[in-house]
Structures are given as structure tokens and as C-alpha cells.
Write a structure and sequence with these properties.
Layout (H helix, E strand, L loop, with lengths): L1 H20 L4 H4 L9 E2 L3 E7 L4 H11 L3 E7 L4 E7 L6 E9 L2 E8 L8 H15 L1
Length: 135
């Protein structure tokens, strides 16, 4: 019976390590944002902002300031940048893409593992947008 507990703990540890250290496929995550309107899904959120000028650079600055966030690929100058933000305890990755459009910027946040993010991606996008609007 004791070996069953150890086996279950080993499996749980293996899953936790995979979630934390699994590589990110840039070709899969750094893709164009196809949505045309704001939307909230179970594991994703989209925000479409109108505006030009340095809006993309401001959003990039706020994304980079978020804890546990790094750039996966791209740059504001290239017109698209994708970030990875990891949860505090388990390190679950969420991906956020900013994409310049002719009339503004599209933001797309989504989870990698699971089905629901409990609104985390929508809250992150709204927080970043709020920070930009407050400046």
C-alpha cells in the first residue's frame, strides 16, 4: 500500500515538472490574432483597442512589467510580440500576444494547460489596458 502512495506522489511530481519546464513552441503560440472583437472564453480573452501612436509600445512596457512575464517572440517594432506569464505557485504558462493593426492593437491572452483560467487572462489584459489608460 505504501508503494501506491509513493507512485502517486511520483506521478504528481512528474506532471508538475512537465508543466513548469515544457518548452514553448514559438510557431504555435506566436501567431496572428484573428479575432475582430472583444471576447472572453473559458481559457482565453481578446481585447481590441483603437488608437495609434505609441500604443503598442505602451502596452509592451506594461506587459514586460508584469511579474513572471517574459517575451517569447517578436517585438513591438515587428508589429507582433508574444509573452509567457507563469502562475506564482505551479508555474502554469499563459500566453499573451499583442498585434499592431492599422487602426489599433489586438491583445489575445490564452492558457496552455487546462480548460478554464477562471478569468485570469481577461483580468491580465484589462489590468494592462488600465495601466496604459492611467498614464
Amino acid at each position: 500500500m505504501g508503494w501506491i502512495i509513493w507512485a502517486m506522489l511520483g506521478i504528481a511530481l512528474a506532471i508538475a515538472l512537465y508543466v513548469r519546464f515544457a518548452p514553448s513552441d514559438v510557431a504555435y503560440w506566436h501567431r496572428p490574432v484573428t479575432a475582430g472583437a472583444d471576447a472572453d472564453g473559458e481559457g482565453s480573452a481578446v481585447r481590441i483597442l483603437q488608437g495609434g501612436g505609441d500604443l503598442m509600445a505602451q502596452l509592451d512596457r506594461e506587459m514586460r512589467a508584469l511579474p513572471r512575464t517574459r517575451v517569447l517572440s517578436g517585438s513591438p517594432e515587428a508589429g507582433r510580440v508574444t509573452y509567457v506569464t507563469r502562475s506564482r505557485i505551479m508555474g502554469f504558462p499563459d500566453y499573451t500576444t499583442l498585434e499592431r493593426r492599422t487602426d489599433g492593437v489586438a491583445l489575445y491572452g490564452r492558457l496552455r494547460f487546462g480548460r478554464s483560467d477562471f478569468g485570469v487572462n481577461a483580468a491580465r489584459l484589462d489590468r494592462v489596458i488600465g495601466q496604459v489608460e492611467a498614464r
